[in-house]
User: Fold these one by one.
Assistant:
Number 1:
Amino acid sequence: MHRALEAWVHEIAAHTKPDRVVWCDGSDAENERLIGEMLKDGTLQRLNAEKFPNSYYHRSHASDVARTEHLTFICTEKKDDAGPTNNWMSPADASARVWPLFAGAMKGRTMYVVPYLMGPASSPFAKVGVEITDSAYVVISMRIMTRMGAVALNHLGENGEFVKGLHSLGDLNPDRRFICHFPERNEIWSVGSGYGGNALLGKKCFALRIAGAQARREGWLAEHMLILGLEDPAGETTYVAAAFPSACGKTNLAMLVPPASFWGYKIWTVGDDIAWLRFGPDGRLWAINPEAGFFGVAPGTGPKTNPNAMETIRKNSIFTNTALTKDMCPWWEGMESGTPEGLTDWRGNPYTPGSADKAAHPNSRFTAPASQCPSISPKFEDPQGVPISAFIFGARRGSLVPLVYEAFDWNHGVYVGSSVASETTAAATGAVGVLRRDPFAMLPFCGYNMGDYFGHWMNIGAPGNVPGTSTPKRLPKIFHVNWFRQSAEGKFLWPGFGENLRVLNWILSRCRGKGEAVETPIGYVPGPGGIDTTGLSIAPGAMEELLRVDAKGFAAEWPQLNEFYAKFGDRLPAEIRRQHEAQRKRLGA
Ligand code: SAT
Ligand code: MN
């Protein structure tokens, strides 16, 4: 037994006062027992056993359907270490305000101890977390999203390190909801929410906020990125990692099916949300996906937009806050054309087709094992991960930002990542469609001062050898993409989905030292023949518009970006300042 783990479990049980403590082993029998209990108490409903075998439906509290960023805190001793983009609470305040909310919170409930591993078993990248929770829904979700139970305890051994995660549903009242992170002591406290990103503590809380701080201390990267392999007709696979804000199509891109004219190409899915990256012995950055499942946005997922996801979720899956059909199948907008009769909406009310409300919550989710994905990479379980040739930053921008451009070099690429802005989505509570700065798609997920984060990225790419070795670094190229450009009439200019392969293919040729490009003030964009448009149906003139660089428009945004950087004061790396100034000059602003 692991003494520190046992002591912590005793301490938490003494404070939260559960009726019983259950150590989870991740076995089928345990899973079935928990599901049986939740079917009885109404937490779960069984879905149509023919169409969705071994799959379940869950409705969360109507005020608890997305991440609550305003209730998410970084609890460092010094406020400056959390930085201007995070909510800060001192550890002492957290002890005074949040710890008492756990007192007796598990009375009448079961306390589950959930050991889990982030990363493939036996991977040198892998890390152990233990989540204590009073939600059985969290337990069965963690079983899909992580490698849970014995495998984690084996990895931990008798005195290994682990990240402590304490979670209680509390009373689900948003007034008593807090998600607190202690990056200085590898600990997470979450109370008052049962929603994915707030409650499945292995995901954003550990794998990004806590791991990000660990990564900075230890010289690696923990990023909000999908990982995919693009295999060309010659059979060579190139891997890229791409950062997009929540609900901007990471899962769709990770599982992309190439258009018909790209015969012989194939996409391999390594991950759809999180990447942990380290230098390998060849000087390249190698990435693993620390997760074992997908927690994907359901609405918009259908046989046309993401056939691989539709196949992945056909069994052994959990659906949260979607609508339900008469015959107990999950349903959401965009799953098929037309709306069936007799739907029950995400709140549990009969749904009238044509009503202004959506039947499924816009942030309703599927939770499905990655191993069921038809495009899952043969390297998914590889302990070393995959070598990354390109980083891609993406945003949801209706105007201005071109379909794709390439940064001039590493430092400029870090500047590009730091300057990303995107329109908000339903993945977090609050207004949707508002433009906000979301550097590296990490704004809600950076567990320390984001100025230091920019500096860490600059250090990763600093000239020279991989630290501690005589191996020269071989850094990925950096790109920015935007699938969401709209015409004056509000129509999407780019078809997106499978057609995004055309953009990936240009990126791949650039990585191989080929691919037509023209230099512009913001970076390189594809030249006239750069993007293969064979068989692409697109409005006349749209391609030119998509690749046009509006220097005046970028210049007009420069002062806002300047204000954003100013928030970081002297924690903003000098190199970001230098890049920003160089950009101003190139834009003629
Ligand atoms: O709710 S999660 O944070 O897990 C998903 C997301 O918003 O990216
Ligand atoms: Mn995400």
Number 2:
Amino acid sequence: MDRYAVIGQPVNHSRSPRIHAMFAAAVHHALTYERIEPARDEFEAAVALFRAQGGCGLNVTLPFKERAYALADQSSTRARAAGAANTLMFSSKGVFADNTDGAGLVRDLRLNLGVTLKGARILLLGAGGAARGVVGPLLDQEPALLVIANRTAARALQLCEALRASGAITPLWLSHCQACGLEEIPKGVFDVVINATSSSLNGSVPNIPPSVFGPRTVAYDMVYAQSTPFIEMAHNLGSLRAVDGLGMLVEQAAESFHLWRGLYPDTAAVLRQLRAESV
Ligand code: NAP
């Protein structure tokens, strides 16, 4: 049977094995999907061993995404823009690296939530790995404005500079992108506010002006939990739609599955099942 796995440190909490098992069952593909948790300095050796044993592909999570990208012989434009990979595919041609996080977010927003991104004013909070992975795919949707705001303003500016240097995004779309600190967010309501910070994991929220939220703002927390401090804040400030990142998790997995297996599974059914299981 074809072998796949998620590799990271830690991965015992990962929902990827469950998601890929559901995808495989739905499309009648026989495959295995395991967890690999190498020591920090043994990532490359663990990838090489998995490949030598006939492994077909890996999902990569913290803290190895940049090192996964560095291993690749070839990579997608979106992996180059991110400078990081969450998906590796092995073949006789070598190692191919992709980054499906941004496509997963865009698919969740557009297909599952019905959000129009073309012409939208989008506020992206954070400048870590998650933010970096989604900027290119968000700009591909041709928003009117994409503001990247981070607690440490310098990291937001560096993120934009790295994107420019990667050559993966056209200068036209980079001109729709602004980087700043949280206290410098441009005035006015945003159509979409995405929390790509890890603040919800430690029970806090980014210190942003309440005026970014209006009744029609879609607030999106990449953290997946039924409710998060960010979701509560958005509701309290008048946003009627505030959602977590479980849909992004399922959709990025579907993008990886598509790369490996050549078809998209029915993500809506899997998302419904995961929501039911977490009640
Ligand atoms: P990271 O590289 O560690 O970056 C963390 C970011 O959060 C930085 O921008 C940091 O700002 C900011 N931050 C942390 N605490 C904050 C606070 N209290 N107030 C304001 N900003 C704060 O993490 P990451 O890899 O980007 O991941 C971010 C989140 O996205 C995680 O919770 C992760 O679980 C989630 N994620 C979800 C999916 C999905 O499929 N749903 C995929 C990827 C990631 P500074 O630069 O100022 O420190």
